[in-house]
Every structure is written in C-alpha cells, then in structure tokens.
Amino acid sequence: MSESTDKCLVERWHPNTHTFHLLVGECAVTLKDVAMIFGLPTDGLPVTGMTLSSFNGLEAEYLHQFGVSLRKLDCRGSGIKLTWLWDLKERLQLTDENSIQVYVKVHIMLLIGTILFGDKAGASVHWKYLPLLSNFASIGQYSWGSACLAHLYRSLCRASRFDCKEIDGPLTLLLCWAWMRLSYLAPVPREPRSFSLANRWRNWERGDRVYRFLKLAHFRKALDELQEGQFVWVAYSADRVDPDIVPGPTFRNAS
Fold first, then answer.
1. Which of 108, 135, 186, 219 has its CA 20 to 30 A from that of 91?
2. Where is 21: in which H helix or E strand?
3. At a CB cut-off of 8 Å and minimum separation 6, what does 241 contact?
4. What is the DSSP-derived secondary structure letter of residue 193?
5. Which residues form the domain of 242?
C-alpha cells in the first residue's frame, strides 16, 4: 500500500517548484508538517559536518561514544548495519547516566537510519551523523526537521526521474502528510489524540486488512478524480488536531 501511495505522489511531483500538482491546486510538505507529524524542531543549528569514510575513524568514533568496539563485518560501506545497533540497544543495561545517554544515542541513530534519513536498502545508517551526537546536551538544538524535509525533497526529485525505479528518504513523513490531507484515502487512525501525529497510524496494518491490499490503480484513480473539498488545506485546525496535545514550542517553531 505505501509503495502505491508513494508512487502516485511522485508521479505528481514537480522537481522545479518542489510541489505536487493535483487537480485542486499545488501543494507541498512544509516545515510545519514536519514539526506536527514528527515533532521535530524546525529551527536551530544546521545538520551538517564532515563526511569521513575511513574505518579507523568510524571505529574510533563508536568506541568513544558507545564504549564498544566495531568490526568491519558490522559495517556496510560507510554505514553501520542497523542489526548491529538493534543488538547493542537490546544488550545495554541502564544502570547510570552514561548508559542511558548511550541508549538514547543508539535509538536516535536507528531513527535516523529508518525514519528520518533512510536509504533504499534500509539496512544501515551512515556514520556521518554520529559526530552530531557527541555532545549529548546539544542534540536537541539541531534543526532535525529542516534536514529531514530537505532530504525528502531531494528524494522526491530523484524519484521523479524517468530512469528511477525506487524512492528513499522519510517516506513515513510523506505518507502521514498524504493521510492528513487526503483523509478519504487514509486508514482509520488508531490513536487520534497522540503526538507526534505520525503515531495516529502506528501499527495500522493490524486492523486494516482490506486497506492493505489496495493496488496502485486504486490510488491513481482516486487522485485523478480528486474533487474540491477532498483535499484538506488546513490540516491542523482545532477541529482536526486537539491543541492540548501539541507542545507549545513545537507549534511555534513550525509556524
């Protein structure tokens, strides 16, 4: 299902204007969408830095931050295998402040590799993000939302090329954006009062058996026949999102 929705949206993506061209007008995923759907900060320090690729550097960085050694077979190119991170997370004993910080860093690396900046293979996460986590107190000061949105735009532009067969990037963001705006195409939300709003469809596949088997033709036809009023332009109004569940700073950063 998700691949069908992604493909339909990519077909309507215009790389020059970074907008979707629909029958009812042009629209795009914005910083406010990232803040509301993922709960990520959209201002702050830029997510940038040096991209190093030597195994010695990677090994030293992981030993310094996680306190464990790394083997070459745990790597995939310039990335660390997600299975290695999952195993490390399961083994950690939360006995003191340092072990808790290591646990949080591993969890963030997994989020980066699977949700925020995932690649097509979905098997590893590039270690270039790890230096951004070295100062634990400053992790939340980065504009992760801006970087995530930029990554989605780049992924959509690449996927719109005629010779591209797959798309990577934060597809959870793209899907939740589509489900918020095109509610008649969305599965039934499981947790309507949850924040971040992506949690609304957590484990949705368990209860939406019919929806799971809808084909590409279904979603393509639905978008081709889109009528005025079916697209929600104001997706976060009080009648759709309870303001009591939205943290104040997140909403202000997204406005």
1. 135
2. strand 19-22
3. 36, 197, 235
4. T
5. 2-30+168-250
